[in-house]
Amino acid sequence: MSTLTTLIVIVFCIGYLCIALESLTKVNKAAIALLMCVFCWTLLMMGPAAYYPAIPGEEVVHHIAEVIEHHLGDAAGTLFFLMGAMTIVEIVDSNGGFNFVRDTMKTRSKRKLMWRVAFMTFFLSAILDNLTTSIVMIMVLRKLVQSRGDRLIYAALVVVSANSGGAFSPIGDVTTIMLWIKGVITTQGVITEIFIPSLVSMLVPAFILQYQLNGKFDKENNLPKAEITQFTKAQRDIIFWLGVGGLCFVPVFKTLTHLPPFMGILLVLGVLWTVTEIFHYNTAEDDTMAKRVSDLLSKIDLSTIMFFLGILMAVAVLQEVGVLTMMGQFLDSTFEGNHYLVTGIIGVLSSIVDNVPLVAGCMGMYPVQAAGDLAVDGIFWQLLAYCAGVGGSMLIIGSAAGVVVMGLEKITFGWYLKRITWVAFSGYLAGIFIYWLERTFILP
After folding, report:
1. What pLDDT tens digit does each residue of the chain (444 aa) get?
2. Which of 75, 167, 375, 401 has the smallest CB count inside 10 Å?
3. Got the DSSP string for 301-344?
């Protein structure tokens, strides 16, 4: 590893440590992520010839500019998807669309609510995606749980359940989508063989976390009445089904048009925005301004968006200088032949750095074979889908679901590390063990 590469890794590690210690430094994690991103790319520009020896002279500078634009384009797709999904959910929530979901899940028992949240999040994330599902469930929880201490436990369970649910569905997580499009896993294979391990990876943490929730909610204060809105029940239902149904339609839109997912999100947002403007047409301006989309856009947490941008672009530097590839090669040579250990460690690493470049690196390192563990729906590829998805639950910044919940509920890195990481890790190992049992005794 060259001196410049070592410096880039050191800057990344220092930035990551500052993000982890946000509660102590009192410096917003988004600011650190942006600084880390800029410093890493600046270091790369100090010696570009070392990384692109085949590109002569001044052309290498232009090449790096193109590389940055490429990575920025990938990051922008994720960011626009996130912003669109957050706005759609905010529209539905602000106009009373989630009232009946709240009423369906409503119970005075804290533990009963926990299990309802866990299962609904798990299955919704397989249909939508773990990011969108997390936003929806946090909005519902805000209407059901007034105590911040209790809501943090529920929010952490949402992260774990969303990542577990996304792992067994080809459209539930970015990494499973990548593997599915690449053709190394099939819809039938990943659902039938990863479903039970994913379910176990959610059940174990839920079983542990239920002991942190005792008693019942206060009947009068904890379940407030729905806010009075200008819309009728029929209009609220239309907004709900357009919003949530539209989010479900995004994967279908991608399949039909082959456009990026964020284009589907923008389509749904445009339709929902138009419909709400029509509904507002005959109401008083003073009564409805707070519920108009143009005003709701100001409620989007831009610090979370900036944090996401900084992290994705900083990890892109590690990908460009070959650190992630070297890491994968080291794992392959150290644990040669033991795909359970390799994918298990990759899953742990995915909680530290973004799982997308890790999975992309694995797809580049391991060629698909006609038979064996590296065949289509082989042990390696299915475990990679499981580990990269579920492994992200171990740290709050290890997944898109975790990052957005962190922003919405202001969860600190340290709180999650102390209270939830070992719980998520227990479920993660339990799921791998169940998969080993399946492959050893049921599907030899």
Report:
1. 688 899 999 998 898 888 777 767 888 888 998 999 999 999 988 887 777 877 777 788 888 888 899 888 878 887 887 788 778 877 887 777 777 667 777 777 888 889 999 999 998 888 777 877 888 888 888 878 888 888 999 999 999 999 999 888 877 777 787 787 677 888 788 888 899 999 999 999 999 999 888 778 776 544 445 455 567 778 888 888 888 788 778 778 877 888 887 898 899 999 998 988 888 776 655 554 446 677 777 777 788 788 878 888 888 888 888 887 777 677 777 776 678 888 888 888 888 776 666 676 677 667 677 666 677 778 888 898 899 889 989 988 888 788 888 888 888 888 999 999 999 999 999 999 999 998 888 865
2. 375
3. -HHHHHHHHHHHHHHHHHHHTTHHHHHHHHHHHHTTT-HHHHHH
Residue (of 97, 90, 86, 104) closest to 223 by Cα position: 104
Which residues have a Cβ under 8 Å from the Cβ of 425 and sit 6 or more positions away? 394
Q: The pTM is what?
A: 0.74
The encoded tokens of residue 106 equal: 């409503």
**Count of residues making up the chain:** 444
CA distance 247 to 90: 13
Query: Nearest 5 degrees, angle CA 180-CA 186-CA 187?
Result: 95
Burial class of residue 149 (count of CB atoms within 10 Å of its CB; 0-12, 13-18, 19+): exposed
109 bridge partner residues: 216
Token pair, residue 373, equals 């563990």
413 Cβ neighbours under 8 A, 6+ residues apart: 19, 20, 21, 22, 23, 29, 395, 396, 397, 406
For residue 236, count CB atoms less than 10 angstroms from its CB and return exposed for 0-12, middle for 13-18, buried for 19 or more. Answer: buried
Tell me the two tokens of residue 85. 């999904």
- Give per-residue burial for 166-203: e unless 16+ CB within 10 Å, then b: bbbbbbbbbbbbbbbeeebbbeebbeebbebbbbbbbb
**What would the two tokens of residue 13 be?**
């590690």
Q: How many degrees, rounded to 5, is the angle at CA 353 between CA 352 and CA 358?
A: 125
Q: What angle do CA 416, 197, 136 make, to 5 degrees?
A: 50
